[in-house]
Amino acid sequence: MRKVNSSFITMKDIVREGDPILRKKTKPVQFPLSDEDFKRAESLLIFLKNSQDKRMAEKYDLREGVGLAANQIGWDKQVFAVYFTDEQDKQFAYIFCNPKITSHSSAMVYLEEGEGCLSVDRVVKGYVPRYERVTIHAFTPEGIPFTLKLKGYAAVVIQHELDHLNGVMFYDHINKKDPSRLPEVEFIRPL
């Protein structure tokens, strides 16, 4: 793995809703990544780790995040990072380059407390339906392909971040007339 000093992202670097880049479909990255793009990709994951470290979060006034997409720091590329623990205590720490969902379940899930976003400085009430299971194919920053089969919370996080790369915000999925109304699908359950 190539070692490059990563830049340090703080909340002032996070693009907020209303910025046009959050509504734009991002561009694929080309491999090998430039040193600058490699550093940017790593900095996404470093921000998430720092945001979940109480001491670092307090010191730098960071909001806790589990995922961060490239366009959320103004970078027009198909890259996002995730850092979280799922319901089975499995740790996820990944950087996804040029990610694509290759399959998904028909069953759906939603977070009972709703979703939030580092680019949204307000509470948005409502259910965000997501596929319960997804298979995602992507590349590491080094250009190595990988595929993950995810379910539950992990699948929700991945879909939220992938939406960012397609110019979609989480609240676009909420029923506009009745935020607590769920789609009429065969199976949907809360997480």
TrEMBL record:
InterPro entries (UniProt xref): Peptide_deformylase (IPR023635), Peptide_deformylase_sf (IPR036821)
UniProt-annotated catalytic positions: 161
Keyword Metal-binding: yes
Cofactor dependency: Fe(2+)
Catalytic reaction list: N-terminal N-formyl-L-methionyl-[peptide] + H2O = N-terminal L-methionyl-[peptide] + formate
Keywords: Hydrolase, Iron, Metal-binding, Protein biosynthesis
Top EC class for this record: hydrolase
Reported function: Removes the formyl group from the N-terminal Met of newly synthesized proteins. Requires at least a dipeptide for an efficient rate of reaction. N-terminal L-methionine is a prerequisite for activity but the enzyme has broad specificity at other positions.
Family assignment from sequence similarity: Belongs to the polypeptide deformylase family.
Name of the protein in its database record: Peptide deformylase
Species for this entry: Paenibacillus sp. SYP-B3998
